[in-house]
Amino acid sequence: MAKKRGAPRPGMRRGGPKRPDNPREIHEGRMVLYGWHPVAEALRNPDRAVHRLLATENGAARLADEIGELRIAPEIVRPGEITAIVGPDAVHQGLYLEAEALAGPDFDALPADAVLLALDQITDPHNVGAIVRTAAAFGVTAIVTTARHSPAATGVMAKSASGGLEHVPLIIVRNLAAALIQLGERGFTRVGLDSEAATPLEEVAPKAPLVIVLGAEGKGLRQRTRECCDVMAKIAFTGAIQSLNVSNAAAITLYALVPRR
C-alpha cells in the first residue's frame, strides 16, 4: 500500500505546477528563482514582489522553520514537478519561486562612497552569479551590466549568486562606455582589470566613489571600455598560472582596493 503524503501545514496548499508548452513563457515579466538561498533571501526581501512559490514538503517545512510566516503560501508539490519546470540539471532543493525583478538605482542616487562593479560582456551565468555573491560579501553598492551580452538575473545566475541578488542591485545600461563616462563625470575612479596592464593592483590608490571594470575571460576588456578607465591594473601573480576565473579576480580586486579607498 502506498504511503500517504502528510497533510499540509497551515498557510500551505497543495497543487501541481502547470508546465507551459514553452518553458520560456514563465520568464515573461517575471524572473525564476530556485534553490534554498535564492528563494529564502527573496522571501526575506520586502522589496521583492513575489507571485508563485512551489515547494516540496521538506522545502516548505524548512522555510517555515527558518523564516516563519511567509508572504505567499507555497503550493506543495513533489520534487519531480519542480524538476519538470527547471530542468534535470537544476539543483532546486525543493524550492521554486516566480518573482518580479528588482529595480536598480539611478546613478544620481548612488552614495558618495559607492563601490560598483562594471561587467564588460561577461556572459556566463555561473561567473556572473559568483561575482554577485562576491559583491554581496564585500558590500558592493551595485553591479553595472549591459542589456545585451549579459545573462538575465534568473535561474542559473541567481542560483550561483546564492541569494546575493537581494543585496546587490543590477544597473542595466545600454552602452557600458557611455555609462563609464557618466560615472567619471560624477567623480568615480574607474579601475579596469587587465592581466597585461603595467600597474600592479597594489600600486593603485583609488578614491571614492569607485567602479571596478571586469572583462570576459579570454577577451578581456574591449578597447573602448579601456579608454573609459582612469587606470588599468593587473593582479601580480608569482606562480606558474598567470590568470584566474573572473569571479576570483573580482574577489581579489575588491579585497585589495575597497579597504584603501
TrEMBL record:
The keyword Methyltransferase applies. SUPFAM superfamilies: alpha/beta knot, L30e-like. GO terms for cellular component: cytosol. Residues 1-25 are annotated as: Disordered. InterPro entries: Alpha/beta_knot_MTases, Ribosomal_eL30-like_sf, rRNA_MeTrfase_TrmH, SpoU_MeTrfase, SpoU_subst-bd, tRNA_m1G_MTases_N. Keywords: Methyltransferase, Transferase. GO terms for molecular function: RNA binding; RNA methyltransferase activity. Residues 32-105 form the RNA 2-O ribose methyltransferase substrate binding domain. Residues 1-17 have a biased composition (Basic residues). GO terms for biological process: methylation; RNA processing. It holds the Pfam family SpoU_methylase. PANTHER family: 23S RRNA (GUANOSINE-2'-O-)-METHYLTRANSFERASE RLMB. This is RNA methyltransferase. It comes from Methylobacterium oryzihabitans.
